[in-house]
Amino acid sequence: MHDYVDYYHILADVVGKTLIEHDVTHCLFFDVPHLAYDTVLFQMCKVLNLRTIIVRQTLFPDRFWTMTDPANLGHFADVPDAKPYPIDKGVWPDLFYMSGVKQEPEETGTVNANAAVNLFLHLLANRPARLLNPYCAWGLFSRAQLVYRSFPKWRDPFARFFHEDSLAYFDHLSNFENQDIDLSRDYIYFPLQLQPELTTSALGGRFRDQALAIESLARVLPDGVRILVKENPRQGAYMRGPMFFHRLNRIPSVTFLPSWADTRALTLNAMAVASITGTVGWEAICQGKPALVFGNAWYRKLPGVLEWNEKLTYDEIVGRRVDHAALQRHVGALVAGAHRGVVARQYAQLVTDFDENSNFDRVACTLLDVIKGRIETSFQ
Asked: Residues with Cβ < 8 Å from 376, sequence gap 6 or more?
């Protein structure tokens, strides 16, 4: 740890001196700082009292937000004349980044060519002696095959990467695949978020430790109320070591779900949905279910959402009602505070007849106005 601390202080010093030497007055970030270089840069801008502008793409087509600090995310101003944003119950957002993920049992898979090649490359790079021992190599391949035969075909554990830590992770997860899901008794649904990722690493605060959030929630639940936990279908072994699962296993109210569990059914039958900053909370309030968030979620100030604090009670969590008309009015104000344009390339697919050049011009002019203070940032 001390090596990391030393490296951090050296990096901060270099970045700070560079800002001073170049007489920098503003810094523009094309997403919430969450990596080493941009996080340290943002922190040094604060130390030196430099103006920072952060942009963040939204799920609303052709709209992005601006703010001066990640802590401001979600703090939108009321816009009295904003048009209500139409939200149809029963219609779920089309999350393009979750394409290929299914919500039902399916025929299990088998080791494919990509997985076999990745396994071979892992042995070649890290355990070359095992390649000379057919028994060891075959044992590793057999374990990988057992993993594939435990998961539905769409869950392809080793198609892009193989490591023995990943094998142990998926081997552990396979223990939860063959179980019945009981939605008849009271529960709070807690889907885990992908890690490491901006939505937890930067926006989760101390609850980037998702097990801590689940432990905190469990302490306020009455006997008999469960927490149904589902792993993120994109997650790998990193930040999911054995101790993470040991911690969850020590919480009597936690039930870990199979990968094929239907998140929509889990949401609709839950007493409430809990997340750090995940989109599942947005989906929940759109369906009339209360949402509990532990981090700086963009929707945290909308009707039906509670922000975690140590004094919250179970009755407050499940008793929060979602006024659908009020929700549409508030979302209208939230969208009204956004700017037109796409600042994250993959979101261009949400825009009909997207034109890259006109988008460049529009975003550049908007950001110049924000930097010069001619228009307000989306969040204050």
From this structure: 77, 337, 370
Classify residue 161 by burial, with Cβ atoms within 10 Å: 0-12, 13-18, 19+: middle
Largest CA distance in the chain: 73
Nearest to 273 by CA among 182, 189, 186: 189
Give the pTM: 0.94
Whose CA is closest to 144, among 120, 108, 110?
Answer: 110
Helix pair angle (2-21, 36-47), 10° resolution = 60
CB 102 within 8 A of CB 152: yes
Residue by residue, what is the 3-state secondary structure of 218-277?
HCCCCCCCEEEEECCCCCCCCCCCHHHHHHHHCCCCEEECCCCCCHHHHHHHCCEEEECC
Percent of the chain with pLDDT over 70: 100
Q: Cα(310)–Cα(328) distance, rounded to whole angstroms?
A: 29
| Residue 254: per-residue pLDDT | 98
Q: What is the distance in angstroms between the CA of the first residue and the CA of the last residue of the chain?
A: 35
Query: What strand order describes the sheet that includes 226-230?
Result: 254-256, 226-230, 187-191, 272-275, 291-293, 305-307
From residue 159, give the alpha-carbon distance in Å to each of 63, 77, 124: 34, 45, 17
Tokens 């002696």 found at: 129
**What average pLDDT does range 353-375 have in this prediction?**
96
Q: How confident is the model at residue 132 (pLDDT cuts 50, 70, 90)?
A: confident
